[in-house]
Structure formats: structure tokens, C-alpha cells
Please model this.
Amino acid sequence: MERAVASVAAQTVRPMELILVDDGNADETRSVLAALRDRHSPGWIKLVLLEQNVGAASARNAGWEAASGQFIAFLDADDSWHPRKIELQYRFMLAQPDIVMSGHGHAQVEGTPTLARLGEPVFYHLPAFYVLLKNPFITPSFMVRSDLAFRFLPGRRHMEDHLFLMRVTTAGLRIAKTKLPLAFIYKNIFGDAGLSADLWVMQHSELENYEILCREGRISQGMIHFFRVYSWIKFSRRVLIVRLRRLLAGKTGSR
Model:
């Protein structure tokens, strides 16, 4: 958490506010959040304290509703941002009013990230079909217009970010991405710790996402059959990657 907050405070264009959401944790999270708030300028950090655990989607919505800025960016407690993330993404969003949200690449690191010199970002439009096939960027890369009518679907605890992107793009709204790595993650995207650790839960949630889109009339019955097959192919690939990763880790540890 401290690393994440420090990366926000170090932005070359500092956000007007930072909202920390406690999703009903039973540990000492609230005292940690209060201590972080008190270290910074009065009023810059706002706390949203939920009485019970509602999951990632509803927790993000709660933070969104508490925000007062023109744009919303999300950052998980165990990730961090490149110092120029807000500067580069904010400038693009201001210049492109037809883009409702944007994202960027990320780098997986251990320890303190190496801050390579960045070139100018090149953003490109992501069509809806591409987004239906794969999640194009992670949640810590999101920047979305705060007046967007969509929110994360309440109650979703897994793959809620991909569902959000699919609902936005199938509504005909435009999103964009740059490949610049403006976010840092400290574990593998799937198969390690956190909500993505259980591959079967991820797979079940992805299939549920397509069912939701079909019920909402965003994809047809014919399309959902295609995406189910494609989803199982991706699942098989993820399982293979995780098994190979663990096999290699075991060999390294036995040396």
C-alpha cells in the first residue's frame, strides 16, 4: 500500500485527490490508511471505509462515486505507477474527447522498478471484437472519464475489469491504448497470489461474463459459442504456462 501511494504522490502531474478504499478488511488496514492520509497534505487523501467486503467491482465503484475529478484512474494496493503515467495519459484524454477511457502497458518487476526514459506515447483505438477476445490492459492502467454512464458490475469479484471493458466497447464507445509500460506489477498476472491465483475461478468468471453480455443483447447466441471455445483455449494455455513456471521454479530451487 505504501509503495502504491508513494507512486501516486510522485507523479509529475499530481492528481487533485487520492481516494483509498478499504473493502471491509478485518485487519489493521484502516489504521494504515489513516496513517498514510496524515502523512500528506490535508484533504488530499480521502478514505472510503466499507463496512463489509463487497469485492473489487463494488469497491472500485465506491471510490468512483467519492471522486470529484474529471477523470478516474485505478491502482491496486500491491502495484505502482511510473511517475509520468498521469501526465501522459491525462494529456491524451484531454486532447481526444471522443475517447471515454484509455489504458497502457505494464512491466512485471521485482524490487524497485528501473525508470527508463520514455518516448512519446502512441495511442491506438481498440475495436470491440478485439476487447471481446482478450483483456487488453490491466486495471492499474485505466483512466476513464468520470461522467461515463457505465460502472463495474456490482458484486463481481473476478474478471470484473474485462467485463467493464467489454460492456463499454460493445456499446459503441471508443477506448484506446499505448504500449508504454506506465504501471508496475510485482507478481504474475495469473497463477500466483491474489484474486487471479485460482485459474478455474477466472475461467468460470470469464464464461459468466459472456453469458452476461448475451443476456444484455451485446453479443448474439452464435457469438457466445465462439467465445466459449476461444475461452477454453486460453484457459488451457494459462494452465500450461503455470505448470511450466512451477516446474522451472522447482528446478531452480533444487540447485
User: Anything to note?
Assistant: The radius of gyration is 19 Å. The chain has two domains: 2-186, 200-253.
